[in-house]
Specification:
Elements lengths: L12 E3 L2 E3 L10 E4 L6 E4 L8 E4 L5 E4 L1 E2 L4 E7 L19 E8 L4 E5 L13
Antiparallel strand pairs: 1-2, 3-4, 3-7, 5-6, 8-9, 9-10
């Protein structure tokens, strides 16, 4: 018996005494992403949990997460409240203001926070 003689229905081919398993198509999960503050969208097919980020025009160009389509949520940027002296902080490309985080609040009460921590700098000049 040749492989071409195998039936296409019924789950597999019998070659001699060895039964071949049927071939299964790979199932890929499509996730559609969008941003409530701008028009950015994306499509992913990863099986593992993941989140997409983008530079959001609605949040002055800050890096913000996309949310799965259909998610009722609010995404907003939080401006730094403290005094910024010579610290290297995240400045929004759109307005040049210092921001410390982007918060995602969902209708079910869950939330996420992207934090823009200040960068510490130093110098070794004159150190003994």
């Amino acid at each position: 018996m040749h492989v071409t003689d195998c039936p296409t229905e019924g789950g597999g081919c019998r070659l001699g005494s060895v039964r071949q398993p049927p071939s299964l198509p790979l199932i890929m999960r499509e996730t559609r992403w969008s941003c409530p503050n701008c028009t950015q969208t994306a499509l992913t097919t990863q099986a593992q949990p993941h989140t997409r980020f983008h530079q959001c025009r609605g949040l002055h160009g800050l890096t913000a997460p996309l949310t799965e389509d259909g998610t009722r949520c609010r995404i907003y940027a939080v401006e730094r409240d403290d005094y910024v002296s010579g610290e290297a902080v995240q400045l929004a490309p759109g307005d040049g203001r210092p921001y410390m985080s982007v918060i995602t609040e969902r209708a079910d009460g869950s939330n996420d926070c992207t934090v823009y921590a200040p960068l510490v700098t130093g110098s070794l000049k004159g150190a003994a």
